[in-house]
Design goal:
alpha/beta, CBS-domain, 2 domains, four-stranded antiparallel β-sheet, binds adenosine-5'-diphosphate, binds magnesium ion
Length: 329
């Protein structure tokens, strides 16, 4: 294995290594030809691509809901095909679009599903369920005793995430987890999910067909085309800044410059020295790390050509100009 990638990090998140995996279904459909991908421990990797390109098949090969026809899948230093699939799935969280909660069980019981299968004590299951509900922003005292139909679609998705995390899985697989909720709820879920991930730092593979979601959530994005062919695997800003193939260019579309501004921070490389005739009082001030999108918006709103930029300690480190921002996009 690549020595630069951690197999398992301190919190027990495992890297996932796909080597030449392929899937041919019994009817002859070759959903995935041959895909290799390295997903570092503790990172969120997005699989994106058009409908039918094999995203769900890849995800379901990782937890062996689908058996690969060829190739190897490693979880940390463990070969997934050598593990009992039922035991394997208890260690891998799985969240799908219509979350599949058990309708006749309370929210608390739903979240406790895997811990129950693992034979945890009742008190421990309950404590864990309540801890997870808190973590996903659902007050346990208020929601724990409800049934799934008594929650909104967005709340049900959160319960799905809580359930997937309950037994502290080494990996979380998410198949279009937010696409069934309305756009406003989706934005909130994405934001909360990012906060959650900052806290739990799981290795996550998330499937979406929504580029904005991919750019917003992904540490890295894998763009797939028909047959699970890997077109590009890169960080969001890199993908938007330099599509590797005509397919990716078309896929990321004409508004990629704007998307890219939103994921690229004001960095020291973009700074110039203060202009010769500064008007410090008149220049807007920005922190390093502000997105180029927000920086440009500030310049446009204030009518300024430059903004002065300060570091974490509020010390001025230079100025950024409209020109430099537009050149960087
Ligand atoms: P995606 O999630 O990217 O939309 P899928 O992984 O679901 O794509 O499907 C990839 C391809 O495999 C599609 O052509 C789909 O029709 C086909 N496929 C999926 N499941 C089966 C199956 N059980 N039998 C035959 N073909 C399948
Ligand atoms: Mg799918």
């Amino acid at each position: 294995m690549d020595g630069t990638v951690r197999d398992t990090d301190a919190d027990g998140a495992a890297a996932i290594t796909l080597t030449d995996i392929g899937k041919q279904f019994p009817d002859g459909t070759r959903a995935v030809q041959s895909l290799s991908l390295e997903i570092p421990a503790g990172q969120l990797v997005v699989l994106i691509g058009p409908s039918g390109c094999g995203k769900s098949t890849v995800l379901r090969m990782i937890n062996r809901l689908i058996e690969p026809t060829t190739g190897r899948i490693m979880l940390g230093d463990e070969d997934v095909t050598q593990v009992d699939p039922v035991l394997l799935r208890r260690r891998i969280g799985y969240v799908i679009q219509h979350v599949g909660l058990f309708p006749h069980q309370t929210i608390r019981a739903n979240v406790g599903t895997v811990p129950r299968l693992l034979g945890w004590q009742r008190d421990r299951i309950r404590r864990r369920a309540d801890e997870l509900l808190d973590l996903v922003g659902l007050e346990p005292g208020r929601y724990g005793k409800r049934y799934p139909h008594e929650l909104s679609g967005g709340q049900r998705q959160r319960v799905g995430v809580a359930r997937a995390l309950a037994a502290d899985p080494v990996v979380l697989l998410m198949d279009e987890p937010f696409s069934a909720v309305d756009p406003i709820a989706r934005g909130r879920l994405q934001e909360e999910f990012l906060r959650l991930q900052a806290e739990v730092r799981k290795t996550i593979v998330l499937v979406t067909h929504d580029l904005d979601e991919a750019v917003r959530l992904g540490d890295r994005i894998a763009v797939l085309s028909e047959g699970g062919r890997l077109e590009q695997y890169a960080a969001p800003a890199e993908l938007l800044g330099g599509p590797a193939t005509p397919f990716v260019t078309e896929f990321v579309g004409a508004d990629r410059a704007i998307r890219r501004l939103a994921v690229t921070p004001v960095s020291r490389e973009l700074l110039d020295d203060e202009p010769a005739d500064p008007d410090p009082a008149g220049l807007p001030t920005l922190a390093l790390g502000t997105s180029l999108y927000d920086a440009l918006a500030r310049l446009l709103v204030t009518g300024a050509e430059h903004a002065r930029v300060v570091d974490d300690a509020d010390q001025p480190v230079g100025v950024v100009s409209r020109r430099r921002i537009l050149d960087a996009s």
